[in-house]
Design a protein that fits this description.
Layout: H1 2-16, H2 29-35, H3 41-49, H4 73-82
């Protein structure tokens, strides 16, 4: 999913002059594989310096046996904490054809 998002951003930069600089850093399972920690200091530093962070899936079943503090999802929680983020907003569409829920 993030690869597709990066393609869109690159196209916006190329075709519409969007001023954008992107850097990548390992996080989650990829970071654990490289650094034996899901949120290396170098990744956290880069995220703190950024205006925005694009984060996709962070793990997989191969990490299920790791101790809790080393599991890939700890990277997401660490980023939220360190960047003082409290919400995980996701776009949603409500189609008119869907029945309305009455609470």
């Amino acid at each position: 999913m993030t690869a597709a998002a990066v393609q869109v951003l690159e196209r916006l930069r190329r075709d519409f002059g969007l001023k954008l600089e992107m850097e990548t850093a390992p996080v989650g399972g990829a970071a654990y594989d490289l650094h034996k920690h899901p949120l290396p200091d170098s990744t956290l530093t880069l995220a703190k310096q950024a205006d925005a962070v694009l984060l996709g899936a962070v793990g997989g079943t191969q990490y299920d046996t790791l101790p809790r503090e080393l599991r890939p999802e700890r990277a997401l929680l660490g980023l939220r904490s360190e960047l003082q983020l409290f919400a995980n907003l996701r776009p949603a569409i409500l189609y008119r054809s869907w029945p309305r829920l009455r609470l």
